[in-house]
């Protein structure tokens, strides 16, 4: 079984964060944090997107899978994120 190191995951999360931050211009990322998921024994990337007075949390697994998001997250933000994740996957070697 191939186990991906935590350092590799953190590097992928850094690339994903930087790409989303530069490409999503109608929301600001106000928080980014690598989180530990005890249930799945894995690292996750947590981002908080802000627009006006509203915050929307989105959590990612390694590889760009959206694990969870705030119930009030606008669908067009999720579509933008998903489309950009495809680009990140094409640019990275995972």
Give a verbal description of the structure.
This protein has 94 residues and is α+β, with helices and mostly antiparallel strands. 37% of the residues lie in helices and 33% in strands. It has two helices and four strands; from the N terminus they run H-E-E-E-E-H. The protein has helices spanning 6-23, 75-91, and strands spanning 28-37, 42-51, 54-60, 66-69. A four-stranded antiparallel β-sheet has the order 1-2-3-4. The radius of gyration is 13 Å and the shape is globular. The mean pLDDT is 91.
Topology readout:
Blueprint (H helix, E strand, L loop, with lengths): L5 H18 L4 E10 L4 E10 L2 E7 L5 E4 L5 H17 L3
Please provide the count of β strands. 4
- Compute the number of structural domains: 1
Overall pLDDT: 91
Radius of gyration: 13 Å
Q: How would you spell out the order of helices and strands? A: HEEEEH
Strand adjacency order, main sheet: 1-2-3-4
Distinct helical segment count:
2
Terminal CA distance reads: 15 Å
Largest beta sheet, briefly? Answer: 4 strands, antiparallel
Alpha-beta classification: alpha+beta
Low-confidence stretches: none
> What percent strand?
25-35%
| Gross morphology | globular
Percentage of helical residues? 25-40%
Distinctive features:
94 residues, single chain, alpha+beta
Question: What's the gist of this structure?
Answer:
The chain has helices spanning 6-23, 75-91; strands at residues 28-37, 42-51, 54-60, 66-69. The protein has 94 residues and is of the alpha+beta class. The model has no long low-confidence stretch (mean pLDDT 91).
